[in-house]
Amino acid sequence: MNILLFGRDGQVGTALSQLLPSLGTVVALGRDGADFTQPQRLTEHIAATRPDVIVNAAAYTAVDRAESDVATAEAVNATAVAALAEGAAALGALLVHYSTDYVFPGEGQAPYAETDATGPLSVYGRTKLMGEAAIAASGAQHVILRTSWVHAPGARNFVTRMLELAAEREELKVVDDQIGAPTSARLIAETTGEIIARHAAGRPIATGVYHLAAAGETSWAGLARHVIATAAARGAPLKARADTVHPVPSSAWPTPARRPLNSRLATQKLREALGIALPHWTDDVAHTVAAMVPEGGQ
Ligand SMILES: NC(=O)c1ccc[n+]([C@@H]2O[C@H](COP(=O)([O-])OP(=O)(O)OC[C@H]3O[C@@H](n4cnc5c(N)ncnc54)[C@H](OP(=O)(O)O)[C@@H]3O)[C@@H](O)[C@H]2O)c1
Question: What gap in Å lies between CA 255 and CA 68, rounded to an integer?
């Protein structure tokens, strides 16, 4: 099976680069080989590779910067994705793509199902939703995995940032009124692997949107506390402690982009389609922390 991976160097792309070779022949492209602001080049890559599966982990993910860089966010998250989808449709290839909890407005307390009405609050969310719509309109066989609060060892994300800050400061103020589930790039890659393996075995899951997030829920402050407690238990020399993480409301931390307060995603559709259980976010995060803090600390 030929697999064409875009976004090789991001959090999810890195995890996929490690996992996908066990499933087939992989061509993995980063920004240097496939610039998403030039969709024509993407079409050429697809024509040259003739993949059975296209996996797109590239995205404009700078949520705040997107507010003032709308054209680039739209080009990468929507126009380029439309080109990938058209290429997949023309070849009869499966397209696996990733989207976000930020397509929702974040009202209420209930986890969002795939069928719930969207209503993005930000340019990032709006452009990701445009990408989803372009895929649906293309007629390509596809799986769109909406995920949330992605973390991976060594990458720029909230978990690694909290470890840095906790080493520098005794007290941290962290937002506690946005609720969601941190989800590892490793879990996203493994789930993608399951989807591709089933496709290859002639037992594909139905085309469409699926929610993928670790089990349970927390706030950013709760996540910070868990990261610090886990790293401290492994012997990391931190100045901050779990109980010196002070909760603040989103309003105390103004950002260019508005973020949903309710980022909960209901994952039943995906779990039933694949026959899998998803790990609790605490275990998933502990795995990422363990990869960065060797036992005995440092
Ligand atoms: N991060 C999250 O918390 C989160 C939450 C929900 C959903 N998601 C979704 O999950 C997917 C993977 O996200 P991630 O966390 O792995 O993101 P990431 O680490 O930011 O990786 C995104 C990749 O896209 C590449 N990229 C950006 N602009 C590009 C362009 N013009 N041409 C080619 N490549 C370009 C980046 O390249 P450079 O490395 O060169 O910048 C980067 O390698 C995305 O679809 C994202 O929307 C992420």
Answer: 12
Nearest CA to ligand 1 atom 19: 10
- 124 flagged as catalytic: yes
pLDDT confidence bin for 280, thresholds 50/70/90: very high
- The CA distance from 16 to 10, in Å, is 10
User: pLDDT per residue over 37-96, tens digit each?
Assistant: 999 889 999 999 999 999 999 999 999 999 999 999 999 999 999 999 999 999 999 999
Rounded to an integer, what distance in angstroms lies between the CA atom of residue 183 and that of residue 94? 24
Q: What is the 3-state secondary structure (H, E, C) of the chain?
A: CEEEEECCCCHHHHHHHHHHHHCCEEEEECCCCCCCCCHHHHHHHHHHHCCCEEEECCCCCCHHHHCCCHHHHHHHHHHHHHHHHHHHHHHCCEEEEEEEHHHCCCCCCCCECCCCCCCCCCHHHHHHHHHHHHHHHHCCEEEEEEECCEECCCCCCHHHHHHHHHHHCCCEEEECCCEECCEEHHHHHHHHHHHHHHHHCCCCCCCEEEECCCECCEEHHHHHHHHHHHHHHCCCCCCCCHHHEEEECHHHCCCCCCCCCECCECCHHHHHHHCCCCCEHHHHHHHHHHHHCCCCCC
User: What is the C-alpha separation between 60 and 50, in angstroms, rounded?
Assistant: 25
Give one word for 240, left, alpha or beta, with left for phi > 0 and alpha for psi -120 to 50. Answer: beta
**Closest ligand 1 atom to the C-alpha of 58?**
24
Q: Is the dihedral of CA 238, 242, 245, 249 positive or negative?
A: positive
Which residues' Cβ are closer than 6 Å to ligand 1?
7, 9-13, 31, 34-37, 57-61, 76, 98, 100, 128, 147-150, 155
Q: Which of 60, 98, 124, 210 is catalytic?
A: 124
